[in-house]
Amino acid sequence: MANHKSALKRMRQNQKRRLRNRIRKTRIKNLIRAFEESLKAKDLNAAEEKLKAAQKFIDKTASKGTLHWKTAARKISRLYKKLNNLKKAS
């Protein structure tokens, strides 16, 4: 347990950041899941809208430092790849 005033403050800050990051990561997972469900239903219009929302939030999360920018780019790239494969198939 921390004893110094600065260490106690650092603990409080870390806890806030940890909670904020967890919320953001969970939201990303939910957005991706919604996108993939619309892909399974083969609804291209809904999938494109959900992909735009997911991409916007993933980029925003990366800019805040929760995700590394290359991780964000990889996630977005894989989502677009899935959408394009569905477009080719239909």
UniProtKB/TrEMBL annotation:
GO biological process: translation
Disordered: annotated span: 1-21
GO molecular function: small ribosomal subunit rRNA binding; structural constituent of ribosome
InterPro entries noted in UniProt: Ribosomal_bS20, Ribosomal_bS20_sf
Name of the protein in its database record: Small ribosomal subunit protein bS20
Any single GO CC term annotated in Swiss-Prot or TrEMBL for this entry: cytosol
Alphabetically ordered keywords of this record: Ribonucleoprotein, Ribosomal protein, RNA-binding, rRNA-binding
Role according to the record: Binds directly to 16S ribosomal RNA.
Keyword RNA-binding: yes
SUPFAM superfamilies: Ribosomal protein S20 (SSF46992)
One family name in Pfam for this protein: Ribosomal_S20p
Gene3D superfamilies named in the record: Ribosomal protein S20 (1.20.58.110)
Originating gene: rpsT
Family: Belongs to the bacterial ribosomal protein bS20 family.
The UniProt record lists the keyword RNA-binding: yes
